[in-house]
Amino acid sequence: MKVTIHSRSDRYEFDADGSKPLLFAGLGDGIALPYACASGTCGSCKATLKSGSVGDAWPAAPGKKGFKSDSQILLCQCAPRGDCEVEVAESVYRMIPGSTLPSGVNARVANWRLLTHDVASWELELHDPMTYEAGQFVLVRFPGVEGQRAYSMVNFEPGSRRLELLIKKKPDGGLSEALFAANPAGTQVRVTGPLGAAVFKPDAGKDVLCIAGGSGVAGMFSILDHAESIGYFEKNSGHLYFGLRSMRDAFFLDRLTSVARYALGALEITVCLSEEAVPDGAAQQYPGLFFAHGFVHEVALKQMTGRLANVHAFLAGPPPAVDAAMRGLILQGKLSPKNISFDKFS
Ligand code: FES
């Protein structure tokens, strides 16, 4: 089947066999189609079907909110049923040669460990190695579960078969509740990736600012891991603001203590507690970490305003917190939007 994409910048054609959605068929062909969550929730891949027909894997996808006609589709959910033409409202470009193209790979849940009452760390053992950039994510499809879920890599081991991920238990989140109820180690899953544009680019030489809430800190570990591995903090500074409700929700603080120690003072890590005062002894228990009371974006903005001249910011976590951080960085911090990266998951 032939798929034609009309965009503001150019027209592209690629072949598709109908086995995967238009987004993944196009990305696999090196065409940088627009997307963010890649899983039907954000609406970033909205397009208009001009001719032909598609099969829609998730007719009730939340990303369709605001759709005005039946010809509007989500590229991440719709697979072609024959030749078709699709219009994308924005500019679309070819990826630069050598870019890592997402593909599907089988995997096994190799490890599962509860970190708190509602956050778990888990590892996937991939059938084939995956190359990815720090900050990227994968989609995971569980057997018998509709749709795919997005998870950012915690580890930075491009080319390995191991992916370390975090998952948060969501109230009424059917899949997460089922996983927390029964250790899924050994389950065979299907992984698609790597995906995501909020990636660390060392060549830009920017100081790194990470603002993350809860399990959104996953991708920040990957970024810090990459930076650490190339000695990035010998020339650049880094700041991580990690938002939690209370110490009951805390995880990976020992690991962050080690990360801070290796950066020899060039990386400042602040744990922000929004629902309780900082307990006595927290700083002594985790030497090298700073603690503050308040919402993570508010603490970060207060401390970083006036220090953002050469910064690239990475944001992750609950969407309202990401939106608030972005607004504050742009309006209050005068940081250019091009120096702010995040992947929108809803
Ligand atoms: Fe398709 Fe988010 S809805 S990328």
Automatic annotation (TrEMBL):
<dbReference type="Pfam" id="PF00970">
    <property type="entry name" value="FAD_binding_6"/>
</dbReference>
<dbReference type="InterPro" id="IPR017938">
    <property type="entry name" value="Riboflavin_synthase-like_b-brl"/>
</dbReference>
<dbReference type="GO" id="GO:0004497">
    <property type="term" value="F:monooxygenase activity"/>
</dbReference>
<keyword id="KW-0408">Iron</keyword>
<dbReference type="InterPro" id="IPR017927">
    <property type="entry name" value="FAD-bd_FR_type"/>
</dbReference>
<dbReference type="InterPro" id="IPR008333">
    <property type="entry name" value="Cbr1-like_FAD-bd_dom"/>
</dbReference>
<keyword id="KW-0001">2Fe-2S</keyword>
<keyword id="KW-0411">Iron-sulfur</keyword>
<dbReference type="Pfam" id="PF00175">
    <property type="entry name" value="NAD_binding_1"/>
</dbReference>
<dbReference type="InterPro" id="IPR012675">
    <property type="entry name" value="Beta-grasp_dom_sf"/>
</dbReference>
<dbReference type="InterPro" id="IPR039261">
    <property type="entry name" value="FNR_nucleotide-bd"/>
</dbReference>
<dbReference type="InterPro" id="IPR006058">
    <property type="entry name" value="2Fe2S_fd_BS"/>
</dbReference>
<protein>
    <submittedName>
        <fullName>Toluene monooxygenase electron transfer component</fullName>
        <ecNumber>1.18.1.3</ecNumber>
    </submittedName>
</protein>
<dbReference type="GO" id="GO:0008860">
    <property type="term" value="F:ferredoxin-NAD+ reductase activity"/>
</dbReference>
<feature type="domain" description="FAD-binding FR-type">
    <location>
        <begin position="102"/>
        <end position="201"/>
    </location>
</feature>
<keyword id="KW-0560">Oxidoreductase</keyword>
<keyword id="KW-0503">Monooxygenase</keyword>
<dbReference type="InterPro" id="IPR001433">
    <property type="entry name" value="OxRdtase_FAD/NAD-bd"/>
</dbReference>
<dbReference type="Pfam" id="PF00111">
    <property type="entry name" value="Fer2"/>
</dbReference>
<feature type="domain" description="2Fe-2S ferredoxin-type">
    <location>
        <begin position="1"/>
        <end position="92"/>
    </location>
</feature>
<dbReference type="InterPro" id="IPR001041">
    <property type="entry name" value="2Fe-2S_ferredoxin-type"/>
</dbReference>
<dbReference type="InterPro" id="IPR050415">
    <property type="entry name" value="MRET"/>
</dbReference>
<dbReference type="InterPro" id="IPR036010">
    <property type="entry name" value="2Fe-2S_ferredoxin-like_sf"/>
</dbReference>
<dbReference type="GO" id="GO:0051537">
    <property type="term" value="F:2 iron, 2 sulfur cluster binding"/>
</dbReference>
<keyword id="KW-0479">Metal-binding</keyword>
